[in-house]
What we know:
With 416 residues, this protein is of the alpha/beta class. The protein is built from 16 helices and eight strands.
Amino acid sequence: MNKKPIVLVVMDGVGKTDKDLGNMVMHAYTPTLDEMMRTCPNNTIQAHGTAVGLPSDEDMGNSEVGHNALGCGQIYAQGAKLVNESIESGKLFESATWKALTSRCVANKSTLHFIGLLSDGNVHSNISHLKALIANAKKQGVANVRVHALLDGRDVPATSALQYVDDIEAFMASLNDDTFHACIASGGGRMKVTMDRYQANWPMVKLGWETHVHGVGRQFASARDAVETYRNEENVIDQDLPAFVIAKDGKPVGTIEDGDSVVLFNFRGDRALEISMAFDDADFTAFDRGRVPDVMYAGMLQYDGDLHIPKNFLVAPPAIHNTLSELLALHKPMLLVPYPLGASRGDQIENAKSYQRQGLAHVLMQEDMTPETLTQYLLELLSQRQELARTLEAYPVKDGTDAVLELIEQAQKEKK
Length: 416
């Protein structure tokens, strides 16, 4: 049998559609790619909605959910859906973390703060999650809630911030009474304040800390006032709006103080890690935090499972079993481990080093392994893990990509 290399190419970020407007893929000059698409086996995969574990087919895909779905080789509830299910079932509000956050505020007569992206983009967060958290906080007896609203304009229309500001303020107003008060305390555009990633711009996180925690910054009477003023002055879209602090009689309405609780309600991790480190790490050195309030801090999810950031979180990650690389790692005749599932780019290098130390971060093929012995090996795995067998049968590979698959099929028939 002739041995030929097989290259699997996943074209990340390349969409296929017949729509002409804005379709750079269609209009680009790509003679080599065109030839390969004509002559090589290829297929398109759905990278949004329920196919990658999002709540509905109306939800657009993004790099994180696509990488996770490919990495584990199966559909599981990603961040947005995971939080939806936890809220709908009530598990989130029954969790020890949520009870500790709210009981702390009740006991201290202190404030529960929510920091996060204010939109329904379903990439980093969803405003419906914030509403559910605020409503249940009141139910638990929390008297004061403050929202530190990061404005989107990236996963939703570029100048849609006021839609979400008005929505959350109307919602909070419907809850406010003699025993409860919630309002927006601070904010800014997501690309200006707090939501840095890959540790590329710590001053951006420092600005968020000073804005949300200390209430330092330009003051406005309302979030609407801030958005409208900055749009007129700066001529920028929502994601680039400068930081703002809501104040009454010259005093910020929602600084973060000793005894308070703080929740980052984003579920996506890459832009949540750095502000979480600032709250969670006693030995934090990335910038001078000044006054560091004694708070209980929690994320919507744990954004880095290896580094345990943050220590407290509201929704547990999904239990994912029987990934192919996991099964192969147990036996080691051959193994491909690109990156661990859910790792942010900042963690990939360290995780890769960890796999290398374990001897796992390579493609290993024993020199004496033939297609026949590989077939037998895979059949043994299939017999041991029926769930994997059912998964492989449900997703047949098309176009005869190599002789090994044919041998597996033949061997299965002969075994019967």
